[in-house]
Amino acid sequence: MAIAKNTICVWYDKEAEAAARFYAGTFPDSAVTAIHHAPGDYPSGKTGDVLMVEFTVAGIPCLGLNGGPAFKHSEAFSFQISTEDQEETDRYWNAIVGNGGQENACGWCKDKWGISWQITPRVLMEAMAAGGDQAKRAFAAMMEMKKIDVAAIEAARRG
């Protein structure tokens, strides 16, 4: 068993396996790689319950921990998924929001487990990296959006 040097640990109440399976079915280069059951009782579970789930999201190693209701998610942590075009943006956005999630502003949404996601077209990041008026116009356009509209960002870049 190879253990990654750095792994993102995501706390769930008790649905780490369901979340990991959803991510694996939604994003390329994603998989559930191991499920570990509790060897003994713990504050929010019993012997044999799913305690940890090893998974990858777009190639990034993660560990889902079923730690109980003690901690809640916030936008202070999010997965940012870079997309190539509107079709890919729509596919991921609709998968997350359409599976019990919720829309937020500026390309952010939350899945039904409360994890924040940024579905970010490359054209937006390229505009921000370009700086100057291009970045200002793209940023102003983005501030009016929930899901990012690629054509509107491209138009804003052009002025």
Descriptive account of the structure:
It is a single chain. The protein has 159 residues and is an alpha/beta fold. It contains five helices and eight strands; from the N terminus they run βαββββαβββααα. It has a four-stranded mixed β-sheet with strand order 1-4-3-2. The longest helix has 13 residues. The radius of gyration is 18 Å and the shape is elongated. The mean pLDDT is 96.
Layout of strands and helices, then pairs:
Elements: E1 8-12, H1 16-26, E2 31-37, E3 50-57, E4 60-66, E5 78-83, H2 86-98, E6 102-103, E7 108-110, E8 116-121, H3 122-130, H4 132-142, H5 150-158
Parallel strand pairs: 1-4, 5-8
Antiparallel strand pairs: 2-3, 3-4, 6-7, 7-8
List keywords for this structure.
159 residues, alpha/beta, 2,3-Dihydroxybiphenyl 1,2-Dioxygenase, domain 1, 4-stranded mixed sheet, 8 strands, elongated
Summarize the structure.
With 159 residues, the chain is α/β, with parallel strands linked by helices. Helices cover 33% and strands 28% of the residues.
Tally of DSSP helical segments: 5
Range of strand content: 25-35%
Domain count: the total is 2
CATH architectural label of the largest domain: Roll
**In terms of structural class, how would the helical and strand content be classed?**
alpha/beta
The CATH class of the largest domain is Alpha Beta
Label the overall shape: elongated
Mean pLDDT: 96
The major sheet is characterized as: 4 strands, mixed
CATH superfamily of the largest domain: 2,3-Dihydroxybiphenyl 1,2-Dioxygenase, domain 1
The unreliable regions are: none
